[in-house]
Amino acid sequence: MADKTLTFAPGIIQIPPIKPLVVKRSPPTWMKSHERFMKGEMCEVIAATQENNKVIATRTVISHLLKALFFGKKVDLNRLVKEATAVDTIPDEKEWETLEQIYSNPHYSFDTKDIEIIQSIYAPARVEKDQRSPEETRMYQLWFTKVELFKLVKLGKIPFQFKGEESCEGDSNPSKKIKAAVADDTEDLSYLMEGIDDDDE
Questions:
Q1: I need a surface site. Which of 20, 41, 45, 198 has the fewest CB within 10 A?
Q2: 169 — alpha (psi -120 to 50), left (phi > 0) or beta?
Q3: What is the mean pLDDT of residues 9-31?
Q4: Are 36 and 193 in contact (CB under 8 A)?
């Protein structure tokens, strides 16, 4: 049985901004990443060709694009998911179900800091960073992007499904099967994207 992939309705996705965008200086790095992505550049290329010959992590570019969605920008989420899956920054179906369970627990909410959510899921997140292996550190970092995407889908009520390759065949209208992600929180949740650092790595 083929692994199921997080899938959104075809086309460009745009949600009402969770927080109004105010640019007080030159365009931030996330906005530049978004502009390049929407012109067709791949995340890996954007990461490797920053201004002043700087290189950042691909997962940072993916976080930039999630931040763009947060501010009401248009994003091709299916294309983003395809590129992000290649670098393990998209939750698989089991991880998604784990996040569903965590956030359904009254002890947690969208007010909960991401690190607390990750520590409840991933044991190496509960130890000092110098006690983690390189692979554990990599997985720990990737969990932040997975949590970011999960919360945006919930807050933006973006329809989605997990679909295997075999389910695509003969499906004349796959969007009918896509289920809605329901957000229960309606307060100002602008703090959710504060952890995205333009200068990360």
A1: 20
A2: beta
A3: 86
A4: no
pLDDT per residue as tens digits for the range 94-113: 999 999 999 999 999 988 99
**Can you tell me the distance from the alpha carbon of 89 to that of 83, in angstroms, rounded to the nearest whole number?**
9
* Element containing residue 6 per DSSP (H, E): strand 5-8
- Predicted local distance difference test score (pLDDT) of residue 57: 92
Taking Cα atoms as reference points, which of 190, 3, 167 lies closest to residue 88? 3
Confirm if 10 and 176 have CB atoms less than 8 A apart. no
Question: Cα(first)–Cα(last) distance of the chain, in Å?
Answer: 37
**3-state secondary structure labels for all residues of 93-155:** HHHHHHHHHHHHCCCCCCCCCHHHHHHHHCHHHHCCHHHCCHHHHHHHHHHHHHHHHHHHHHH
Residue holding tokens 């289920």? 179
Residue 15 Cα distances to 99, 123, 151, 172, 182, angstroms? 21, 34, 13, 25, 13
**Which of 163, 153, 149, 174 has the alpha carbon at shortest distance from 11?**
174
Between the alpha carbon of residue 147 and those of residues 32, 55, 151, 153, 167, the distances in Å are 23, 24, 6, 10, 26
Q: What is the pTM of this model?
A: 0.78
Q: What secondary structure does DSSP assign to 10-21, as a single string?
A: SS-B----SS--
Sorting pLDDT into bands at 50, 70 and 90, what band is 56?
very high
Q: Which residues, listed in sequence order, are joined to residue 168 by a DSSP beta bridge?
A: none
pLDDT one-digit tens code per residue, 114-163: 999 999 999 999 999 899 999 999 999 999 999 999 999 998 999 999 98
